[in-house]
Amino acid sequence: MLKIRNKNDKEAEIFISGDIIDDQEGDFLSAVWGVESGYEWPAKIRQQLDELKGKDLTIYINSDGGLVNAGVAMANMIARHDGHTTAIIDGWCCSIATQIFFAADERKMPANAYLMIHKPTGPEDGNADDHRKVADILDTLQEGLESTYRKAKLDGVTDGQITAMVNDETWLTGEDAAKIFKIEVLEPSEAAACAAGKRPVNFKKAPKVLQFAARDKPEPESAGDDNDHEIDKAKINIALALAKGVLQ
């Protein structure tokens, strides 16, 4: 969930944690149980940024990604902010969430945090012609995503290396990432050890420590009341929406 903490008149902190969805799903979630839903969407961060105009921002990220269009929109909002922006990875920053990370003026991550980049994926319905069109769209989307990574790469790192990393689903610790991108490495954070969310087992090459943590994470107990039932239905709807959209 997105949280904001004002440090003073000139500085503020934003915490982005959760799956990234679009405004339509965000509006639905707000109607069901308010903005404290564990999801992020463009309209929510736009409202917060409007309240923080002119302030320097530190943006803490712990997200495993979501919809490409929503993540790119959020990244562009960060890039347009009129104050200095610093992005810090709290635990992990995966898929489209990396676009938000690289949109900041400065980027930092603990040595034991994770950054993951991979190819965008899309819906699988339709005939052969539909699939060819989707493949072309995904290639175009990948080119746009890679352009962000290329801007942040160190001298000596080639465009071909960036493409190969995206194609291969590449996981990087803070120390690894600093060898490829313009990133400042911070001292290891205890919080990073708890980075595993609810989807790492679906990533093809997630580090074993994250896969283990995800499998062992206990499922929340249901209270069995009407409110829990509505929340369960909402989560199912969001999952379906994510499946239909273009994910990263």
- Cα-atom Rg, whole angstroms? 18 Å
Q: How is the main sheet built?
A: 8 strands, mixed
Structural class: alpha/beta
Distance between the termini: 19 Å
Number of helices: 9
From the 3D structure, determine the CATH topology: 2-enoyl-CoA Hydratase, Chain A, domain 1
Q: What this model shows, in words?
A:
The protein is of the alpha/beta class and 248 residues long. The chain is built from 9 helices and 10 strands. It has helices at residues 23-33, 42-51, 68-80, 97-103, 128-152, 159-167, 174-177, 208-216, 226-244; strands at residues 3-6, 11-17, 19-20, 39-40, 56-63, 85-94, 106-110, 114-117, 170-173, 184-186. The strands form 2 sheets. Strands 1, 2, 5, 6, 7, 8, 9 and 10 form an 8-stranded mixed beta sheet that branches. Strands 3-4 form a two-stranded parallel ribbon. Helix 4 (97-103) links the parallel strand 6 (85-94) and strand 7 (106-110). It is globular, with a radius of gyration of 18 Å. Mean pLDDT is 82; it is low at 191-198 and 212-224.
Secondary structure blueprint with pairings:
Elements (H helix, E strand, L loop, with lengths): L2 E4 L4 E7 L1 E2 L2 H11 L5 E2 L1 H10 L4 E8 L4 H13 L4 E10 L2 H7 L2 E5 L3 E4 L10 H25 L6 H9 L2 E4 H4 L6 E3 L21 H9 L9 H19 L4
Parallel strand pairs: 2-5, 3-4, 5-6, 6-7, 6-8, 7-10
Antiparallel strand pairs: 1-2, 8-9
Keywords:
248 residues, alpha/beta, 2-enoyl-CoA Hydratase, Chain A, domain 1, 8-stranded mixed β-sheet, two-stranded parallel ribbon, 9 helices
In short:
This protein is α/β, with parallel strands linked by helices. The protein has 9 helices and 10 strands.
